[in-house]
Design brief:
- The protein contains 18 helices and two strands.
- The chain is mainly α.
- A two-stranded antiparallel ribbon has the order 1-2.
- Helix 9 packs antiparallel against helix 10, helix 10 packs parallel to helix 12 and helix 15 runs antiparallel to helix 16.
- It is elongated and about 75 Å long.
- The N and C termini lie far apart (58 Å).
């Protein structure tokens, strides 16, 4: 239904718009035609915020006939008009999805952002289109698509799990990130498999996602990841183990303190502090003498955490 201020409208009723457009202009509101769309678009620039708001709501209720003018308004130089167009598009339903997907590729970051948030509000209806965008050539488009999917949450989990097997490593990376943000435990086993992905960036993203989800079923997998030769995998594995808080990982993290890479030692120290096992104190005290300042500072904080 339209706002109460618009009155109860039937298919042929004429509606005065001196509270919406101007003091003189009226237009016919027909559910199948006769709508003065441009006047409503212009009303979104009215000095009165209430009038602008009601115009946006009406445009959203009109549906498909208002779609193209609203997409154009989404690119308006006036940020308030962009915002109001977004409100209207969010009320329109899945008919707007193809146009909003196109808007995700616009150069204006505000337009891309608004399209992202609107698509997220459509929920499951937008999932397939957003999954397809994960492989876009533009990194910003991929990121915005993953963000929208993470906001959608549960309905996006299964399609994202399937995307972990995509041939494009960029798709796999963004899918792992989104699953970590959603935090659904159904993604744990697939992400454990992705920790063994052939691409290091996917392995990083999967390890990081497992840490965010926080299911201790991932502990053994992440301990194995600590033995990777690549520090870009060892570091997120350490962070993830710290988040899981499983004392089973203490011995493996202590071994990581011997790494020649300062970032690996730093990650291990932070993880040991989060886990809080007193068995690590002796090794953390040794880390107070580490040649790297970041490691020394992290060791001091970790010791305080364990002893507090």
């Amino acid at each position: 239904m339209l706002p109460h201020a618009m009155g109860d409208l039937d298919g042929c009723e004429r509606v005065k718009t001196n509270s919406i457009i101007s003091d003189k202009k009226t237009f016919s509101f027909h559910r199948k035609g006769g709508i003065d769309l441009q006047s409503l678009i212009n009303a979104m620039r009215h000095n009165n915020l209430g009038i602008r708001w009601r115009a946006a709501l009406v445009l959203g209720e009109i549906g498909e006939p208002a779609l193209k003018p609203l997409i154009k308004a989404l690119k308006d130089e006036d940020k308030d008009v962009q915002w109001l167009a977004g409100i209207a598009l969010a009320r329109m339903g899945k008919v707007a999805i193809p146009q909003l997907i196109r808007a995700m590729t616009e150069k204006d970051p505000d337009v891309r952002w608004r399209a992202t948030i609107i698509l997220a509000k459509y929920g499951e209806a937008a999932v397939e289109s957003l999954i397809n965008l994960l492989g876009d050539n533009e990194s910003d488009v991929r990121w915005h698509s993953a963000l929208a999917l993470s906001i959608i949450g549960k309905p996006a989990v299964e399609p994202l799990i399937l995307a972990l097997k995509d041939k494009d490593w960029l798709v796999r990376v963004r899918a792992a990130w989104a699953l970590g943000e959603i935090g659904d435990t159904n993604a744990v086993e697939p992400l454990i498999q992705s920790v063994n992905d052939q691409d290091w960036y996917v392995r990083w993203s999967a390890a990081d996602a497992l840490g965010k989800i926080g299911d201790r079923k991932a502990t053994k997998c992440l301990i194995t990841a600590l033995k990777e030769p690549d520090s870009f995998v060892q570091l997120p594995a350490s962070w993830a183990l710290g988040n899981l808080g499983d004392e089973e990982s203490v011995d493996a993290l202590v071994q990581s303190l011997k790494s020649t890479d300062w970032s690996v030692r730093w990650g291990a120290v932070e993880a040991l502090g989060k886990i809080g096992d007193k068995r690590a104190l002796e090794f953390l005290k040794n880390a107070l003498e580490d040649k790297d300042e970041y490691v020394r500072n992290a060791a001091e904080e970790a010791i305080e955490l364990i002893q507090s």
